Amino acid sequence: MKSTPPTSRGGLSVDSPVVVEVSAVPSPSASPEQAVHGVAVDPHEADELHGDPHEHVTNTERAITLTFVVVPFVGVVLAIALLWGVGVDWFHVAQLGVMYLLTALGISVGYHRLFSHKAFKTHAFMRVFFAIIGAMAAEGTVRRFVANHRRHHGHSDRDGDPHSPHHHDGGVWNTVKGFVYAHVGWFLLKRPHPDEKKYAPEFCKDNGKNGVTFVDSTNWLWVTAGLAIPTVLGGVWGALTDGTWISSAFLGLLWGGIVRIFIVHHVTWSVNSVCHLWGTRPFKSGDHSRNNAIFGFLGVGEGWHNNHHAFPSSARHGLRWWEFDAGYVLVKMLSWVGLAWDVRTPAKTQLQRAQAKAEG
Ligand SMILES: [Zn+2]
Ligand SMILES: [Zn+2]
Known about the structure:
Blueprint: H1 32-37, H2 43-47, H3 59-82, H4 90-116, H5 124-135, H6 142-154, H7 172-188, H8 196-199, H9 211-217, H10 219-241, H11 245-272, H12 293-298, H13 305-310, H14 326-336, H15 348-359
The structure holds zinc ion (2 copies).
């Protein structure tokens, strides 16, 4: 693993040629997990990385799986349109939007880029802030997320990947099964969780006494807060406008809380399922990760997933000008005000090398 040269804390590192390793194809000598995270890997597990990743999916089968994801989103938009003025108004849609953005960024920038990949550095209080807004997404603790995610990168689309859609035989039915498994089955079915002490050791240290580990140990509290905040704001808004505080509070809970969690969940899960099935592959990343524009936008940058697998430690997932990456915009803004530093992005030469490799 090449090390990142020390950079200033003023945020200039964004534009400086900070080194991020390209793990285009896992090398037999160093597992991607070691290369990316510095986490020691059981040699027996590392052996599983050799060979081709599983792949049995045709384009038709991919289209079917995408339908499973797109239809519920169309349903939510239709529900908003049909219930306008009755069960939803602009205030509650704004609550949905703001709470979605906050918690999706908590997962993308906090749980994923900061905690799982150490893609930038920040103050202790900002780490706690990201842990809290990530917890509000109701996707579990930092510790569990990081362990699952690092294992995913270490075994991507191979045996040992906790949520690959490719562990199955061909055919439409098996594709649907693989998709459902990658989307929700992997955590609904009783499977052993990755060893958190091995994959996320820094979050297993002080028995929940400090910072991020404290947020982890009180996870339920932050999930509840994520539901209570839009409920209270909805009630206050109703009381101040037309006096209907009870129904407005309920609508706040519904749109800013429950519907918002539904959308954040499906977008996050789609990165695991859709983004390993459907989209473009500009880089040879050694797995089946894909860039999917729908989830690039909806997922605050997470859908540029082939880019991410090619440059796992990069804080920037959208690498071309048109690949909008809201998560990286946030990191960059934080770096401007001194709240993020040592922001890791691929150097130009690394990008060129990876592109040449993909073309050749
Ligand atoms: Zn992936
Ligand atoms: Zn990742």
